[in-house]
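quick one, 71 residues, struct below
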Amino acid sequence: LRCRPHFKPFSCGFILAIANLNGSDISNGALNPARAFGTLILVGDAKNLLFYMTVPMVGALLGGLLQQILL
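---
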């Protein structure tokens, strides 16, 4: 995917805004794991704490493996 250099910050911000608007209403999700941890700990709702701790690490591992395979 190629785009003009001056358009990249706008497109990244737009994608993050759409992801925040969609995720926060449906699952009370946060794109920042620290924000999710703080809210879960202060509220005392540890039901989703394991999910927010493991999924970012699994995603990072899968992304690294995919990069090594494709590049």
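The radius of gyration is 16 Å.
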